[in-house]
Design brief:
Jelly Rolls; 129 residues
Amino acid sequence: MIVRSLAEIKGTEWDVQTDKWASRRLLIRGDGLGFSLSETIIHPGSESTIWYKNHFEACYCVEGEGEIESLEPECQKSKIEPGVLYALDKHDKHILRAFTPLKLICVFAPALSGTEIHDPDGSYPLSND
Ligand code: 9YT
């Protein structure tokens, strides 16, 4: 069994900061579960264009207010607030906007290696370690 706290991740290489978000990768590929789990804070006022062409992602909002706009394969705008989940089951290209600090619990399959930041097209590469 794995028992781990956010405090153990903070300040390590699995605590990834960008100008638009901070993501603490609590479970990573090396844990061997086949998925990873992150606590992600999307910074207020940010707009991110994302396309996880190599991964599936599901995000469950626990704090904050924002909006997701799916672009491909279909267009749809949805409010994100505590208790709302979105899952990119079609590798949907999307724009994520945070109106306040948006805290999301994010699951990726296949698992992230733990240190990824977005490529220019908004994707993460497939990890081979
Ligand atoms: C919602 C989203 O994808 N934000 C970027 C960070 C991502 N959740 C991650 O790497 O954990």
